[in-house]
Design goal:
alpha/beta; five-stranded mixed β-sheet
Length: 184
């Protein structure tokens, strides 16, 4: 009887079997960068049905095909995309903002994602243009936010006498994502 009760309350999401390669990220509070990194991966056919495990356990992470934002390793050959090492200073070509896990995934898979989503040939100059434009206009803000980099230098704002008229922290993508950590 208890088995039937469990089955009847099982949600459709729990019944869905994810069959792609296992993606790992950290447990606890989630952030915009690893949420975007996982989303970007799942845009690719290889990862479209990939399950996600959230853990910091190295033995569990070792079973993952691809790991983002945890594990202390950046190695694209082994599909490890963490940016939390003290010596990590990787940036997107022609930019100076240190990458987050979203930027790392985008740097390595962005052209493939663009080609797959648009139907363009991956070698097309249009893919190159979109790759740069999407990084500059979207992904870089995730990288900067996750790494604590402001769009404006505080010293420049102070020198110009610019102060905020109100607190706008509630209107960034990262702050909206963070609110889900506190949802009931």
């Amino acid at each position: 009887m208890s088995h039937q009760r469990h089955s009847s309350t099982e949600t459709p999401a729990k019944k869905l079997k994810m069959a792609g390669p296992l993606i790992g990220t950290h447990n606890g509070h989630f952030h915009a960068d690893e949420a975007l990194a996982v989303y970007l991966l799942r845009l690719l056919p290889t990862y479209a049905s990939s399950p996600l495990v959230r853990t910091r356990d190295p033995s569990v992470l070792a079973t993952c095909h691809t790991v983002v934002d945890v594990g202390g390793e950046y190695n694209p050959q082994t599909l490890r995309f963490d940016h939390h090492q003290r010596e990590f200073n990787t940036v997107f070509p022609s930019h100076s903002t240190k990458l987050s896990s979203a930027g790392l995934v985008y740097m390595h898979f962005g052209k493939e994602i663009i080609a797959q989503q648009t139907g363009l040939n991956i070698a097309s100059s249009d893919v190159d243009i979109l790759y740069e434009k999407l990084y500059t206009d979207l992904i870089e803000a995730f990288d900067a936010n996750d790494n604590g980099i402001s769009a404006y230098a505080a010293s420049d704002l102070a020198a110009a006498g610019i102060t905020k008229r109100f607190d706008d922290r509630g209107f960034t993508i990262a702050s909206v994502v963070n609110r889900y950590n506190h949802a009931p």
